[in-house]
Every structure is written in C-alpha cells, then in structure tokens.
Design brief:
Layout: H1 3-12, H2 23-28, H3 37-50, H4 52-55, H5 84-93, H6 108-121
Helix pairs in contact: 3-6, 5-6
The chain binds heme C.
C-alpha cells in the first residue's frame, strides 16, 4: 500500500491522473442532497450532457460500442462499488482507464445530483426514501 504521503505526491504531480479516493473513505460519504424530484431532474440534465455518450440516454450503455461502459441501471454489474459514496467517487475521480474523472468540471453537489438520478433509474430497493 502506498499510503497518504504517496497519495499527496500523486495529487500534485502535473499531468498525473486524478487519484481515486480509497474505498473505505468513499463508502463513508453521505449524499448531502435530498432525494427530491427537482434534484433528480437537475442530475438527469447534467447526465444527458456529459454521460450519455458512453452510458446511453437511458443508462443502459448499449449505444456506444467504443466503450465498455456498464449499465448504470444494474449495480450488480459494477466493479467500483454501489454505495452512494462509491458512485460519487467513480464520477468525481473516474473509474478504471476509460471512465474519465469529472471532478474538475462539476461541483460536488452536481455530482451528488447525478448520484440521485442514477438511483432513480436503478433498482427500486436501492432508492433513497423521500421524507
Ligand atoms: C468516455 C466514456 C464515458 C463517459 C463520458 C462516462 N463514462 Fe462512466 N464509465 C465508462 C466506462 C468505460 C466505465 C467502466 C470502467 C471500468 O470498468 O474500468 C465507466 C464506469 C462508470 C461508473 C462505475 C461503475 C462501476 O463499475 O462501478 C459510474 C458510476 C459511471 N461510469 C458513471 C458515469 C457518469 C455519471 C458519467 C457522466 C458524468 C459518466 N460515467 C461518463 C465510460 C464513460
């Protein structure tokens, strides 16, 4: 394991790929944005702008054969974790070699709204409770 010092070096190295937050820290993150129609809609708009090219407008990722993007409707297929925090980190920091990081162009709240949108198209039992 590389540890904190090594992570810090990688983080400041010019041109280095963004480093992904470790899984245990990612799992501990909680979505600060409530699951509400307006937030889901905002997340969907950002999703359609930035993500549908690879994951498809419906999240099933069947339209673009150039990328082996997983269906975002099916957490059983995912490799980088399916908690809210892990989805957040996959979007912010990227996942694997082909999933680009979006942390530079999106505020954290915008990423969390995309997480809510992904929940809204995923399995019912994983959807957050509406207050
Ligand atoms: C250039 C194509 C591309 C774009 C654009 C893209 N993705 Fe991905 N995404 C991928 C690929 C390919 C993977 C699978 C990476 C792997 O398994 O190594 C992936 C993986 C993911 C994962 C992790 C799934 C897992 O296996 O745990 C999430 C979540 C995700 N993408 C969400 C998004 C969201 C949200 C956006 C828009 C903000 C987005 N992606 C934009 C190609 C893309």
């Amino acid at each position: 394991m590389c540890g904190l010092a090594c992570g810090a070096v990688l983080a400041v190295a010019p041109g280095a790929a963004a480093e992904r937050m470790p899984t245990d820290q990612a799992k501990a993150l909680q979505n600060p944005v409530a699951y509400a129609p307006e937030a889901v809609k905002a997340g969907r708009n950002t999703y359609l702008r930035l993500c549908q090219y690879c994951h498809g407008a419906d999240g099933r990722a069947q339209a673009n054969p150039d990328f082996e993007a997983p269906s975002l409707r099916d957490p059983d297929e995912w490799r980088y974790g399916a908690t809210d925090g892990e989805i957040f980190v996959s979007i912010r920091d990227g996942a694997g070699h082909e999933m680009p990081p979006f942390g530079k162009q999106l505020q954290d709240d915008a990423v969390w709204r995309i997480v809510l949108f992904i929940r809204s198209i995923g399995p019912k039992e994983l959807r957050p409770q509406t207050p």
